Amino acid sequence: MASNLSIYTTLLNLEPLGISPSHILPVFVLGTLTYGAILFFNITLLLTIALNQNLHKPMHILLFNMPINDIVGASAFFPQMMVSILSQNRSITYSACYVQTFLTHLYGAGSLLILTAMAYDRYIAICYPLEYHTLMSPNKLLKIILTIWTLDFTVIGLPLALSYRQEICSTRIVDTFCNNPSLMKLICEDTRLNNYYGLFTIIFLQGLSLFMVLFTYIQILITCISKRQSAAKSKAIQTCGTHLVVFLFVEFNSLFALMSHRFENVSQYLRRAFGVSVMIFPPFLNPLVYGLKTKEIRQNVTVFFHKKISQS
Questions:
Q1: What is the rounded distance in angstroms from the CA atom of residue 37 to the CA atom of residue 74?
Q2: Do the beta carbons of residue 255 and residue 84 sit within 8 Å?
Q3: CA-to-CA distance for 62 and 71, rounded, in angstroms?
Q4: Hey, is 91 helix, strand or coil?
Q5: Which burial class, exposed, middle or buried, applies to 231 when counting CB atoms under 10 A from its CB (0-12, 13-18, 19+)?
Q6: Coil, helix or strand for 257?
Q7: Which string of b and e fits 149-165 if b means at least 16 CB within 10 Å?
Q8: What is the average pLDDT across 41-67?
Q9: I want to staple 77 with a disulfide (CB 3.0 to 4.6 A). Which of 27, 150, 223, 279 is the partner?
Q10: Cβ count near 45 (within 10 Å)
Q11: What are the tens digits of pLDDT across the range 217-253?
Q12: Number of neighbours of residue 144 by Cβ within 10 angstroms
C-alpha cells in the first residue's frame, strides 16, 4: 500500500462486529436504548445537582463533573457504533477516528482523575471533619476541578497532537472503536517517541490515581479503627466500598485494554471486550450508583419527579 495516504480523505476500516443479519435490529435497538438511558440518567443527575442549592457542597460539585465526563465518553462511542451496526459499514474517516480517539481517552483519563478527587474529598471529610470546610473551600475546590480538566486535556492532547500529521501506511483499525494504540499501528514512521509518551501517560495516570485512592482509603480505615466508632466505620465502608469497586473496574479494564495492544499474543476478543466494557458500563451505572446511593440526591430526584407527575 502506498505510504503517502491523505489523513483527510482516507477511509479507515474498523474491525467487523460479527453480528448476524437477524440480530442487527435487536442489537441496534438495545444499543440505542442504552445510550438513551445513559443520557437520561446523567442529565437527570446534572440537573438535580445544579438546580438544588442544598446540593452545592464540595462532594456533590465534584460529582457534578462525572456525568459530564460520562456523557462525553458515551457520545464518543454510541452514535458511531449504532450507525455502523445499522448500515453494516465499518468505515470511518481518519478525522472522525481522530476525534473519537481524543474524546475516548479524554473520558478514560477524566474518569480516573474525577474518582481520585472524590476519594480525596472523602478522605478529608472522614479524617479531618473539623477542617473540612477550610481544606475544601470554594476556592480550593475550584482549583481541584481546574487541575482535573487541565491535566486531562494536556496529558491526552499531547500524544494525539504528535501523531495527527504523520503519514499512514494502513487503513485497518485493530479494534471495535478508534483509540490511540490502534492509530499508532497505522503510522509509517518511527513511533517510538509516541510509544514512550503513551507508556508514561499510562503509568502516570494509572499510578497516580491508584496511589492516591489506596492512600486515602488506608487513612480512612485507620481513622475509623482508631476512633472505634461503629457509625464512622459504617460510613467509611458504605462510602469507600462502592467507590473502590467503580474505581478498580475503570482502572483494571482501561489498563488491560491499553496495555494489551503492546502484546501480540493477547486475545483480540478479550481486548475488545475490556475496551467496550469501559465505554458502556461506567456511564450507565455511575449516575445510578452515586445518585441513588447518595441520600440527598435520591431525595431531590424523587421530589423533582413527584412534582412533574403532579403537574401533568
A1: 11
A2: no
A3: 16
A4: strand
A5: exposed
A6: helix
A7: bebbeebbeebbeebee
A8: 90
A9: 279
A10: 26
A11: 888 888 877 776 555 556 656 667 777 788 888 888 8
A12: 18
Kindly list the distances between the CA atom of residue 42 and the CA atoms of 39, 70, 143, 252, in Å, as whole numbers in the listed order.
Answer: 5, 8, 24, 23
What is the pTM assigned to this prediction? Answer: 0.89
Phi, psi of 52 (to 5 degrees): -115, 115
- Cα separation, 71 vs 16, in Å, equals 25
Give the separation between CA 227 and CA 277, rounded to whole angstroms: 39
Does residue 189 have a pLDDT over 50?
Answer: yes
Do 142 and 45 touch, CB atoms closer than 8 A?
A: no
Question: What is the model's pLDDT at position 76?
Answer: 95
Q: 71, 72, 67: which is closest to 50 by C-alpha? A: 67
Distance CA 241, CA 85 (A): 37
Residue type, 174: V
Tens-place pLDDT, residues 92-103: 998 899 999 999
Q: Which residue has the cell 507508556?
A: 199
Per-residue pLDDT, 1: 43
pLDDT of residue 228: 65
Mean pLDDT, rounded, of the chain: 84
- How far is residue 187's CA from residue 98's CA, in Å, rounded to a whole number? 13
Phi then psi for residue 267, to 5 deg, are -60, 125
Contacts 24+ apart (CB under 8 A), 144-147: 144/62, 144/117, 144/120, 145/61, 145/62, 145/65, 145/117
Between 9 and 147, residue with greater pLDDT = 147
How wide is the angle at C-alpha 233 spanned by C-alphas 231 and 238, nearest 5°?
95
Nearest to 10 by CA among 167, 143, 148: 167
